[in-house]
Amino acid sequence: MNNINRRNFFKISAGAVIGMTVGGVSLRAFAAEPVKLDDPLAAAMKYTHKSEKADQKCANCNLIQGEDGQEWRPCAIFPGKLVAAEGWCSAWVKKV
After folding, report:
1. Gap between the Cα atoms of 10 and 78, Å rounded
2. Interval 19-73: pLDDT, tens
3. Which of 49, 34, 37 is nearest to 81 (CA)?
4. Closest CA to 64 of 46, 43, 79, 48
5. CA atoms of 92 and 58, how far apart (whole Å)
6. Would you place residue 3 in the very low, low, confident or very high pLDDT band (cuts 50, 70, 90)?
């Protein structure tokens, strides 16, 4: 008979939950697609793939996520979508 006590059960369960969560986040990052300019939220936020303001780009916005240096990155404003590092929208906030 398998002898799994309560403590081991919780360790295994916690590990499985953490593994599924981290795996899910990674898969969503790879499955994300760029924001389309005709997307209703993008239109409402006046999103553009190329900023017309020299000092305001998605790359230096506080809402952008992911690692610096990537051409397309996740953004808190557009869940499940990627924005261009050179892009801009009306929600731009200077990175601190």
Report:
1. 36
2. 555 555 544 555 589 999 999 999 999 999 999 999 999 999 999 998 899 999 9
3. 34
4. 79
5. 7
6. low
Helix (H), strand (E) at residue 7: helix 6-31
**HSE (side-chain half, CA atoms, 13 Å) at 24:** 6
Give Cα 50 distance to the centre of its chain.
19
Class for domain 33-96, per CATH? few secondary structures
Q: What is the reported pTM?
A: 0.67
What ranges in the chain are assigned the alpha helix state H? 6-31, 40-44
The full set of domain ranges for the chain reads 1-31, 33-96
